[in-house]
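note to self — DONT lose this again. spent like an hour looking for the file last time. sequence + predicted structure for the chain T wanted, 512 res
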Amino acid sequence: MAMRKTYDAAKETRIKELKKLLGETSTTLENKYFLTTKIIEEYEKYSFDSTLYYIEKNIATAKAINNIYLEKESILKLAKLLVQSGRYKESIDALNELNRKKLPEKLRNKYYYNYKEGYSGLSFYTSVQKSKKNYSSLYQAYQDSLMQRLGPNSDESLALKEKNLRDQRKINDALQTNSKRLSQVKLGTPLYSLITFERALLYDLNNHRDQQKKYLILSAISDIQSSVKDNASLTELAMVFFKEGDIDRAHKYIDFSVEDAELYNSRLRYINISNKLSVISKAYEARSIEQKEELKKMLLFISVLVLFLLITIFYIYKQIKKLSAARKSLKNANNQLKDLNEQLSFSNEDLNRLYNELSDSDRIKEQYIGTFLNLYSDYINKLDTYRKMVRTYIVSNRTNSLLELTKSKQVIENELNLFYENFDKSFLHIYPNFVEELNKLLHEDKQIVLKKGESLNTELRIFALIRLGITNSSKISKILRYSVNTIYNYRVKVKNSAINRDEFENMVKKIS
């Protein structure tokens, strides 16, 4: 049902293409007739008014090309359309215009079929017994004539056989005949819809409700897929669900059927639907009124419960207020005691923190004082050694060798390496986890990896000095004997690898 517009759009597209071909100036009258026939086939179960329009157009075309066969064929299509839409008298009138003896052999089956259906409808709907008897007699005569002409395995022949068996209440035999018909058609065609609908009628007579619903559903699905608007299956299905008490589904299906009937504009279908629609609509409205009454009762009950709840909440609030007043004095006493305890706790924490800071400060001072004194002593010894060596060179008149010695940077490099080694040992003695803690502040793929034998490298020494409070790049450059630009570049490179670039150096200063 949700896909109805999609199936209808496909049909409208096919019709549009046919009309486009029909409107071409190069199309001959004969081709126009056959294109119009295709349009009639598309409209036949889709729109009564459009089908009627194009059948009458084909009659005019057949007369224009003076083709008697095509003219009679179109008149038979008109009679079929009229009889299917419940216009039985008009259908008979159209058939009466034809001379059976002059009718081509190929068209006689349709001729007898339309008479049969026309008199069947008149017999069923007339209330005058004399007319009913006359129409029934004519219906039987045309049916017999048709049966004699049909092949035993044609669908028309099997359909007549099935109807006779159904009228005689030979349901099992009728089902077998229907199964044979059903095996020759596919889902999504008008003939499949008709055969499954007639099968549902058989199960209705046999009181097999599940099977009746199954084949009504299959018929309705096929009707929707093939855009059949002149349908009955969904209307019957609505009545089945109505009898089972499923008013919502029944109302939904009958509304759907009414929409289809309005689009097709079938007088007969309107009559069939209107009686069922009124019954279902009344039940639906009655159920809606009943639900509204139930809803009113529930709202009243809920209102009473809400009132009771409000009274209960007010009583509980009063009790809580009294209890709150009783606890207030105790709470004040507890708060005073808590404040005293917190003050004492804060005092103890401050003392412990100050003690730890003093201990760390003393430890660092002791470490650095010891290191400084050792270095100072070493440099005094080195200066004394250097003084004696210079004196020896001068006394021995080896000034040229002394000059060459002063030109060499080896002494400076050796001293610088020794300085780095002493700095690394001293710093890592105070901050043994510095390298690991600093790497935690960097992205995993950007962490600093030391070479074999290294304690610290240049990047780590720069941030070691920052940890010691020396943050000025020019001061760091003097200590480590690098240019200011080199120190700046190292700092930027490491900061760019940090997880939190903006807070990186502040976090380095906090490494313990």
